[in-house]
Amino acid sequence: MSALPRTERGGRTRARILDVATQVFAERGYHDASIVRITAAAEVGQGTFYLYFASKQEVFEEVVRDLNQRVRRAMVAASSAETGRLAAERAGFAAYFRFTAANPALYRIMRQAEIVAPHVLREHYERIADGYVAGLRAARVHGELAEEIDPEVAAWALMGIGEMAGMRWVLWEQPDGAAARNGATTPEERPGLPPEIFDATMRLVERALSPTAGTPTEGRTA
Amino acid sequence: MSALPRTERGGRTRARILDVATQVFAERGYHDASIVRITAAAEVGQGTFYLYFASKQEVFEEVVRDLNQRVRRAMVAASSAETGRLAAERAGFAAYFRFTAANPALYRIMRQAEIVAPHVLREHYERIADGYVAGLRAARVHGELAEEIDPEVAAWALMGIGEMAGMRWVLWEQPDGAAARNGATTPEERPGLPPEIFDATMRLVERALSPTAGTPTEGRTA
Amino acid sequence: MSALPRTERGGRTRARILDVATQVFAERGYHDASIVRITAAAEVGQGTFYLYFASKQEVFEEVVRDLNQRVRRAMVAASSAETGRLAAERAGFAAYFRFTAANPALYRIMRQAEIVAPHVLREHYERIADGYVAGLRAARVHGELAEEIDPEVAAWALMGIGEMAGMRWVLWEQPDGAAARNGATTPEERPGLPPEIFDATMRLVERALSPTAGTPTEGRTA
Amino acid sequence: MSALPRTERGGRTRARILDVATQVFAERGYHDASIVRITAAAEVGQGTFYLYFASKQEVFEEVVRDLNQRVRRAMVAASSAETGRLAAERAGFAAYFRFTAANPALYRIMRQAEIVAPHVLREHYERIADGYVAGLRAARVHGELAEEIDPEVAAWALMGIGEMAGMRWVLWEQPDGAAARNGATTPEERPGLPPEIFDATMRLVERALSPTAGTPTEGRTA
DNA sequence: AATGAATGAGCTTTCATTCAT
DNA sequence: AATGAATGAAAGCTCATTCAT
Question: What PROSITE patterns does the database record attribute to this sequence (chains A, B, C, D) (predicted)?
Answer without folding.
Answer: HTH_TETR_1 (PS01081), HTH_TETR_2 (PS50977)
